[in-house]
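Amino Acid Chain and Its Fold in Token Form
===========================================
What this section holds: a protein sequence and its matching fold, both as plain text.
Structure line: whole-number tokens from a learned vocabulary of local backbone shapes, matched to residues.
Purpose: to set a sequence beside its fold so the mapping can be learned.
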Amino acid sequence: MTPSIGMRRLLLTSLLLAAPLAAQAAEPVVVTSPQPLPASHDRARLFLGGSIDMGKATDWQRDMIAALADARVAILNPRRPDWNPAWKPEASDPNFRQQVEWELAALDSADIIILYFAPGSQSPVSLLEMGLHARSGKLIIFCPDGYWRKGNVDITAGHYGAKQVSSFDALLHEVRARIATVNRALD
């Protein structure tokens, strides 16, 4: 039985209205500190850990977010545009405490954690984060030549079986594969 013209219009209208919802579901949700973490865990969560160095390191997080513009992922970005270097890195500073607590919560909630150790940077917090999550199976580490503690990163990653990649393209490929795996498990 062939649907009537009215039924076909209704079906077409329904499909057209649903298309933006389907497209929207594939777009990333970007959460930047200190915004609240998403309430629902309906898509893979990716933490962008790595070199920031109080804002001195290249904004590689921006590049990763752009590269994942078509992905169904919640991106947890600790690099905040309103960072104030005058904040004291002490537990008593409420702004600093808020940042550290946000990062710890985001790391715990993440399904995937990128750690990028940029050449020429120190990234001591990223080293701490690597130690905290080395056994978690969540890490993807990109540590090119030129990072001052590359030997420590390589040995520790090898010891705990953390995934290492050798380029930004390889990092992106691994991240996309993990996002797909996590999303399949969530669906």
Remarks:
- The longest helix spans residues 5-26.
- DSSP finds six helices and six strands in the chain.
- The radius of gyration is 20 Å.
